[in-house]
Inverse folding.
């Protein structure tokens, strides 16, 4: 059984895995149950109240699981993703509420620009919860060797994608009147905001023309 097959099987069984993304290595699990997410929080040493993102192979998959993204949120997501962004979007139906316990009407989403084994895992798993595969407050891992032993010992599978860029995704909150950069990472805040502006204007024009 390949590392991809082991990872997919583990995710489907509610266990934790380490997978590569387009930024850093991620600690991931199934998105469908709160129990799996709680195990992820416990292994990382992360408070359950801290938000965690949904990660999928495509925007289509995100919209399938969170249909309320349709409209402006989807337009912005399609303009920026796949790519090294985490978008915080409105979640009025409170789907996957355990991923943002302090603010369940918002949800973080990611579609990393990956190929090979990482893409194969996401294609097969459908949608996962993922955060960087480090201990809370520790450095972001760009190689499997950088993932702490305490994390590696608690996962059921590891997919090695080689050396990764090492900078985390840029996090943009799009739930308010104006976009807000919550974390500047692989993409500068200025560039991220410009891309959001262009996408928002394009969506507004499309709505007006229709």
């Amino acid at each position: 059984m390949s590392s991809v097959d082991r990872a997919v099987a583990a995710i489907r069984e509610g266990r934790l895995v380490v997978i590569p993304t387009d930024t850093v290595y991620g600690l991931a699990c199934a998105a469908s149950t709160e129990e799996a997410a709680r195990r992820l929080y416990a292994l990382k040493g992360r408070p359950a109240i801290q938000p965690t993102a949904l990660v999928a192979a495509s925007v289509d998959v995100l919209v399938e699981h969170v249909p309320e993204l349709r409209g402006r949120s989807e337009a912005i997501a399609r303009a920026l993703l796949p790519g090294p962004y985490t978008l915080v979007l409105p979640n009025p139906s409170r789907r996957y509420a355990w991923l943002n316990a302090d603010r369940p009407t918002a949800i973080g989403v990611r579609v990393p620009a990956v190929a090979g084994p990482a893409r194969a895992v996401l294609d097969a798993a459908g949608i996962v919860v993922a955060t960087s595969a480090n201990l809370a407050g520790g450095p972001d891992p760009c190689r499997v060797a950088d993932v702490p032993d305490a994390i590696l010992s608690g996962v059921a599978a590891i997919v090695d994608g080689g050396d990764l860029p090492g900078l985390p995704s840029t996090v943009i909150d799009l739930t308010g009147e104006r976009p807000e950069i919550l974390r500047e990472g692989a993409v500068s805040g200025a560039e991220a905001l410009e891309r959001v502006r262009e996408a928002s204007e394009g969506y507004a024009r499309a709505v007006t023309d229709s």
